[in-house]
Amino acid sequence: MRHFGHIPSTVRNGLFHREPVEFTADSPAGTLAVALGATLYSPATRPRLADAIRKQAARGVVSMVLCLEDSIGDEDVQAGEANLIQEFRRLATETPEGTEDGGTADGRPAEGPGLPLLFIRVRDPRQITDLTTRLGDAVRLLSGFVLPKFTEARGAAFLEALGQAERLAGRRLYAMPVLESPELLHLETRAETLAGIAAITDKYRDRVLALRLGVTDFCSAYGLRRSPDMTAYDVKVVAHVIADVVNVLGRADGTGFTITGPVWEYFRPGERMFKPQLRRSPFLEGRAEDLRTALIEHDMDGLLREIELDRANGLLGKTCIHPTHVVPVHALSVVSHEEWSDAQDILRPERDGGGVLRSAYTNKMNEVKPHRAWAERTLLRADAFGVAREDVGFVELLTAGLAG
User: Fold this and answer.
1) What is the DSSP letter of 273?
2) Do 375 and 399 fall into the same domain?
3) Spatial contact of 41 and 319, defined as CB atoms under 8 Å apart
4) pLDDT tens, 329-354?
5) Which of 95, 88, 51, 54 is nearest to 68 (CA)?
6) Containing H/E element for 237?
7) CA 20 from centroid of its chain's CA atoms
8) Of 129, 37, 121, nearest in space to 71 by CA
9) Which helix (H) or strand (E) holds 117?
10) Residue 9: which H helix or E strand, with range?
11) C-alpha dist (Å) from residue 234 to 185, 224, 239
12) Buried b (16+ CB within 10 A) or exposed e, 337-365
């Protein structure tokens, strides 16, 4: 699989200076963590779930979470588990071994996309081993589990169960803990909770793929809900938690993890209280103005602003609950030619000693030592999402992604 793999190669060639690299479910954890992109959630009770998974893969989705937790009622858990097992088995029957990532059984590329990375969001540790056993051979399609309301005390049992599931499955399975507990939100317990999460995720580092933020639960604790005109960073009690999570768990010194952006809840038009946040300047040519208008009408300008703020605050990828959010997340994850040029200059071997240089675009200072970690992360993102051509921006990437 690869990002933007759902669009024709001739179109990709016109968009990218360097195309996104291909990866598989067996790629290194560091590659997968960066490549998660827009992780689309779906209730496990959804009818014909296997068809929905294939449909979303054809639209460019590369990671999905099938949810047995908050997205379904308590009374529907057993039905959700049964549906999940049935649909995984159907997917496995329709997907010969060795073709999960879009190749043919003899290793040749296939015409269509493969399956996304698939994760199951569970409620309790027991479900991890139980579902792994019940999946049988279909477990080869599973990449891991999403662990809700994660803390040190609660997380240990989940991560131990994951180890048992790996032994049952005979393959690697990852954890994606969700940071959403009241202990993390409340100021008086936050530091201790973060220290505990840091300790247990470090202990099980080889099993933790990425950390996810449960901002809806944070807002719920104070009876808050942000409007489509506001990002998570405009809700200060939430923004402070995000900053502290990144401070402790997102460091670039080798101790940190990939932390994904919060969910954007809106996908329908609604009353707008403030002027559009989406800048006009990138949308002045041709039909781009029509695209800008459509995005504003569908409350997407707030989403785009939040994606940019996610990256500015150290987050990568995003939890998504609607397919229309996927392409904007991926389009804004592509590395611009200017970013790539700066990163390349900073990481040249002859500049290992440090120093300051003017950027190739002659519009900024690149200071080698302070900007090195940024440059390394930028090149990892460039591998996953590609590098745009000099004359290609967000509008062209979004338009191509939507057209498929």
Assistant:
1) -
2) no
3) yes
4) 999 999 999 999 999 999 988 777 88
5) 88
6) helix 236-249
7) 16
8) 121
9) strand 117-121
10) helix 9-15
11) 16, 12, 7
12) bbbbbbbebbbeeebeeeeeeeeeeeeee
Q: What is the CATH number of the domain that holds 193?
A: 3.20.20.60
8 A C-beta contact, residue 342 and residue 365: no
Distance CA 34, CA 258 (A): 7
**Gap between the Cα atoms of 301 and 174, Å rounded:** 33
175 CB-side CA count, 13 A: 31
Spatial distance between the Cα atoms of 399 and 381, rounded to a whole number of angstroms = 21
Cα pseudo-dihedral 352, 354, 359, 365, rounded to 10: 160
pLDDT in the model for residue 352: 76
Residues with Cβ within 8 Å of 140's Cβ and at least 6 positions away in sequence, in order, are 92, 97, 100, 169, 171
Question: Do 117 and 142 form a contact (C-beta atoms < 8 A)?
Answer: no
With vertex at residue 53, the alpha carbon angle to CA 47 and CA 58, rounded to the nearest 5 degrees, is: 135
C-alpha closest to that of 400 among 299, 291, 302: 291
What torsion do the CA atoms of 196, 313, 346, 379 make, to the nearest 10 degrees?
A: 80
Eight-state DSSP code of residue 103: B
**Do β-strands 117-121 and 142-147 pair in parallel, antiparallel, or remain unpaired?**
parallel
Q: What six digits make up the tokens of 122?
A: 């569970």
Report residue 137 as tokens: 């051979």
Q: What is the pLDDT of residue 258?
A: 98
- Cβ atoms of 115 and 94 within 8 Å: the answer is no
- pLDDT for res 97: 82
Low-confidence ranges of the chain (pLDDT < 70): 102-113, 268-299
pLDDT of residue 362: 78
Pair 185, 166 in one domain = yes
Tell whether 323 and 352 lie within a shared domain. Answer: no
d(CA 320, CA 28): 24
Residue recorded with tokens 């505990």: 196
Question: How far apart, in whole angstroms, are the C-alpha atoms of residue 153 and residue 165?
Answer: 20
Domains in the chain, number: 2
- Compute the mean pLDDT over every residue in the chain, rounded to the nearest whole number: 90
Q: Does 358 lie in the same domain as 275?
A: no
Domain, as residue range, for 81: 9-334+394-403
